[in-house]
Amino acid sequence: MQFIKRLAVFVAFASVLAISISSQRGLSDVFYNLDVLPGISLLSVPVIRSSNTITDAFQGIPAGSEAYMLSGDAFTTNRFDGSSWEAPEQTLLPGQGVFLLISMERPVTITISGQLPSGRITNSIIQGLSLTSAKSLLAGRISTDMGLVVDPFDNVYLWRTNGYQVFTALPAGMWHPYEPVVQRSEAFFINTGRALQWIIDVAN
Amino acid sequence: MDNRCCQLILCGLLYFLSAREQSLRAQGTVNFSNGAQGVNAPIRFGPDGSLLSEGKWKAELLLLEIDGSTRVVGGPLDFAPESFAAGYFFGGTVTVQGMAPGAVALFRVRIFCTNGIPAEATSEPIRVSLGGALLPPANLTGLRSIVVTPVESSLKIAIAEGRVRLVWDVFLPSARLESSTSLSASLWKAVDDRPGLVNGEFSVNVPASQNTQFFRLRFVP
């Protein structure tokens, strides 16, 4: 028996215009629109797609856009000419992150669609510096709302316009300058003293 | 193609190049903080061991140039409040002009007092491979705790009109004045008079009631 429910959630974050979710046997079909500002953004695609390639990750991006993927300690450049990417098979999995350069003067709306698993989702974060993202549509304060438990003096780096804002975890659950707030479909760098298991329980 | 169309294309091209240049050909960056992943180096005040906090203490980031000179690239920066994270400063991303991301830079951290009394300390050189471009700023890994000591601290004494005037540095807030009629360790007692603040120094006037009287400052951590 299939149980299908559909809901549309309008959220407060400026970058996400609307989300549509329909659930089926533990997997939810999801699509949402993301308002991406001109310049460079650090994004993630938390949904599972048919191929998990960059080709089906972002729908509606303009010609001339570029994606920068971290490979080791350097970035590869992948350019979109309006119809296809230079490296169309480049993968972009849930939990990963990618820089996207929008070479326009105004924000563009891109559509992200795929499936979200429910239940317990684990994201393994390696010790040291790594690029990561939530494997769900969660957004908000990184520990309080999103459940990422870090140790004192671990760092989180959020890309803001043309540089990073640095956040430092302190003892007793405090942060400097404040607990980082991660937006939906936003990736971030983390520098942690030990490997972490980021566990998110997603209700269907 | 008309002029307006050409202008739009040119503007778009310039914007594209500008955004790309800014982010991909940026300068090197460093996270100017003594509390970060791999860096736990709280700064203390030598005489009483207290952790430095906001108010009168500042931190500067110095870049050691190849010719041996130094250049201030970050700060002066306040310390965190005593109630929050005493001993630490959090300056965030500092751009090191003239150095590319990934370049190796040598830094020193200088701590100094801003209330007019000379007290400062400088860290050992820290070797850092800079972040920048699309990578986060590098942490000051290798920075160790620093103890800041007064350049000169002394207890000054003067006798006038039957009273003894004792003066010491204002940045020794936890120092306690004690007196004794003998240098025997067991006879020292705290001077009850509350020190006043005069011209940036603590000052106490006590009666010269004994033929022989010794005074000392004792630092209470």
What would you say this structure looks like, in words?
The complex is a heterodimer of chains A (204) and B (221). With 204 residues, chain A is mainly β. Chain A is built from no helices and 17 strands. Chain A is globular and about 50 Å long. Chain B has 221 residues and is mainly beta. Chain B has two helices and 20 strands. In chain B, strands 4, 5, 6, 8, 9, 10 and 13 form a seven-stranded mixed β-sheet that branches. In chain B, strands 1, 7, 11 and 12 form a four-stranded mixed β-sheet that branches. In chain B, a hairpin with a 5-residue loop joins strand 5 and strand 6. Classes of the chains: A mainly beta (204), B mainly beta (221). At the A-B interface, strand 5, strand 13 and strand 16 of A face helix 1, strand 1, strand 2, strand 3 and strand 7 of B.
β content of chain A, as a range?
over 45%
- Class inferred from helices and paired strands of chain A: mainly beta
Distance between the termini of chain B: 78 Å
The gyration radius over C-alpha positions of chain B equals 26 Å
Helical region count of chain A?
Answer: 0
Output the CATH class name of the largest domain in chain B: Mainly Beta
Show unreliable segments of chain B: 8-19
Strand element count of chain A: 17
The CATH topology label of the largest domain in chain B is Immunoglobulin-like
- Kindly, what is the distance between the CA atoms of the first and last residues of chain A, rounded to a whole number of angstroms? 15 Å
What shape does the CA trace of chain A take?
A: globular
What is the element string of chain A, with H for helices and E for strands?
EEEEEEEEEEEEEEEEE
**pLDDT averaged over residues of chain B:** 83
Poorly predicted segments of chain A: 1-14
Proportion of residues in β-strands of chain B? over 45%
